Amino acid sequence: MLEIKDIEVFYGETQAVFGASLTVNPGEIVALLGPNGAGKTTTIRSIMGLTPARTGSIAFDDADITHMATHKIARKGIGWVPDDRRIFPTLTVARNLSIAKKKTRYRQWDTEEMFGIFSALEYLMGRDCENLSGGEMQMVAISRALLGSPGLVLFDEPSQGLAPKIVQDVMKTITRLKSEGISALVVEQNAIAALEVSDRAYVMDRGMIIHEGSAKDLLEDAALRRRLIGM
Ligand code: ATP
Fold this sequence. Notes:
The chain is of the alpha/beta class.
């Protein structure tokens, strides 16, 4: 479904990703782990066309999206839940969600269904987003991604700044999406939380993929995890 081959990504003359390759198969949840500054967010930004890869290629559903504009990539069916949420703060929740609606070749969701996933959302619809808590904002960010009818959702640090109970809720939601046939790439510093819901995992360090394997193996092998991620 997503195939990244040997990409190199630069910020100006500074190289951040050095020949990374990664795949997400249909219906899979894949974790992308690694320490601060490893290049995880840059990889996600490259998939979304925000920092296009200078060399290598990125394909989604067999189409080359390496140099495609971000809005076209979104229209192909890739949803993005950014680490800083990027919700319009002065607009209501309802408005943030209504402008996110898109048709793709994937399953279309409606706002009522979002209330089934996040029961609190219904009561927040009239609120301006600047008044929401971190957990409420994350609900809006995930709902916004789903209303764009994605086949694949990129989650960048979904647990960041959230209370442990809400982290569990967010991770459960990612598993729920999988049961609806939606794939996910989950960038996380909270390796355990991500590994618990993932099928496979990659570990990145200093711009390179240094490990690829089953999530279960990495979850069960604390020594390997410590060696790879330092925890
Ligand atoms: P974190 O969890 O800290 O965000 P990360 O694994 O997501 O870590 P990136 O944010 O992708 O890492 O950063 C990879 C490298 O690129 C780092 O060396 C970082 O300093 C550099 N970098 C990131 N953004 C920029 C930018 N806008 N301009 C220049 N360098 C950048």
